[in-house]
């Protein structure tokens, strides 16, 4: 990746360049076409980045004026620590940027924001079939061994 890669907070002016990455992320997890997220969810997600009362944050990776990736994370309380934890919820890079350090740079950007906020824990989950991403994750974090259960209503 070129040396002009920057990781920065998403701005309101980024929407048109952020949206294709967001759509790509959702498509990767099967949320496209008939199973796509409601446009209301996309609008609310975007609005949360700019609401000081929301604990949801967005970073983007930019190079040469092009957005190459995104990550969204949130701070939340826990019953097992005094300080909040950081949950890295979404991470996506454009296909052309994969394998070039963009994902690692985005994760490191979240680490830096968590440290600046006084947090000592960042965690995330991925699908068990996301083997390519897991090769990176195994290098930048520890696998916790926890299994995620859910019930949708």
Protein model, in words:
With 153 residues, the chain is α+β, with helices and mostly antiparallel strands. Helix content is 32%, strand content 22%. The protein has helices at residues 15-28, 39-48, 102-116, 131-140; strands spanning 6-9, 56-63, 66-76, 85-93, 122-123. Strands 1-2-3-4-5 form a 5-stranded mixed β-sheet, sandwiched between helices. It is globular. The mean pLDDT is 94. InterPro entries: Acyl_CoA_acyltransferase, Diverse_Substrate_AcTransf, GNAT_dom. GO terms for molecular function: N-acetyltransferase activity.
Short description:
The chain has 153 residues and is of the alpha+beta class.
Q: In order across it, which strands form the biggest sheet?
A: 1-2-3-4-5
Record field, number of beta strands? 5
Described by its quaternary structure, the protein is single chain
Q: Percent of residues in beta strands?
A: 15-25%
Helical percent range? 25-40%
| Arithmetic mean of pLDDT | 94
Cα separation of the termini = 43 Å
Work out the helix count: 4
Q: Provide the structure class.
A: alpha+beta
Low-pLDDT regions: none
Secondary-structure element series: EHHEEEHEH
C-alpha Rg (nearest Å): 15 Å
Global outline: globular
Largest sheet: 5 strands, mixed
């Amino acid at each position: 990746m070129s040396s002009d890669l920057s990781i920065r907070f998403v701005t309101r002016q980024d929407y048109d360049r952020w949206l294709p990455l967001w759509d790509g992320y959702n498509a990767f997890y099967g949320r496209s076409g008939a199973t796509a997220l409601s446009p209301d969810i996309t609008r609310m997600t975007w609005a949360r980045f700019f609401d000081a009362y929301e604990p949801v944050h967005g970073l983007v990776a930019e190079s040469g004026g092009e957005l190459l990736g995104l990550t969204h994370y949130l701070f939340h309380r826990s019953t097992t620590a005094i300080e909040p934890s950081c949950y890295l919820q979404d991470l996506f890079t454009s296909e052309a940027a994969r394998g070039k350090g963009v994902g690692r740079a985005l994760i490191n950007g979240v680490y830096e924001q968590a440290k600046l906020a006084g947090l000592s824990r960042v965690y995330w989950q991925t699908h068990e079939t996301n083997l390519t991403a897991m090769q990176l994750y195994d290098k930048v974090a520890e696998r916790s061994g926890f299994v995620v259960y859910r019930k949708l209503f």
